[in-house]
Amino acid sequence: MRKTIIVIASLLFPVLGWSAGGEAMFPNDDISVDWDDKESMQRGAALFTNYCLSCHSAAYSRYNRVGKDLGISDEDMSNNLIFTTDKYGDKTKVGSLMTTTMTIEYAEAAFGTAPPDLSLVARSRGTHWLYNYLRGFYLDDTRPLGVNNGVFPAVGMPHVLVGLEGLKKAKKEMKDDGHGGQHEVIVGFEQVSKGSMSTAEYDQAVKDLVSFLDYLAEPYKQKRQSVGTGVLIFLFFFLILTYMLKKEYWKDIH
After folding, report:
1. Bridge partners of 85?
2. DSSP character for 92?
3. DSSP string of 180-200?
4. Which of 3, 37, 53, 197 is the most interior residue, by most CB within 10 Å?
5. pTM score, two decimals?
6. CA triplet 105, 110, 116: central angle to 5 degrees?
């Protein structure tokens, strides 16, 4: 009994801890990825190659495979979504892996650490976290890059989508920390300068990018789910057949 309680507690406490931490997160809005909306993922792929791939790689994916899954021709992929070159200076081929040309040495000198590969970030962080993180940048003069993040405090990444969203500052309030003290939390943002998109347009752009990252993390997800449903249906009917066979086999004995 004691061992059972320990196992349940070990599973429950991380969830409770995440929920408690989620209250301090701002923004903290829900998102659902529609895997049938390939146009959204296509727009996300364009944002990824334009704004993310210069620093972050997606080295587990190939351009032509992404194009095949999302309905982008090799020609369109090469002309509109590939901006890197190989070591000889020739344009990266459509069958190549989605790697960045930034060297580890340069990245460490510029950012203090090499930016991580984003192939599996949607699985490790989750789409909810990514959606709010990309909408959580705000001005902070105390930070080396001039920005901070309401989801990832003391962030070391610049706000690469600032041209789309614009700049904003955080509105903060003092709230009880549940232990008799108070701490400062973000309760909203105030727009300082406009970007090329409205707030609604930027939110949609971020959703498109997160949808693409969700696809990138598990390209077989939709197919796996459909196959899994078929397998469960097969096992259900196989169970009925097995039970009927057992009844037939043992009827003379009983």
Report:
1. 91
2. P
3. S-EEEEEEEEEEEEE-SS-HH
4. 53
5. 0.81
6. 70
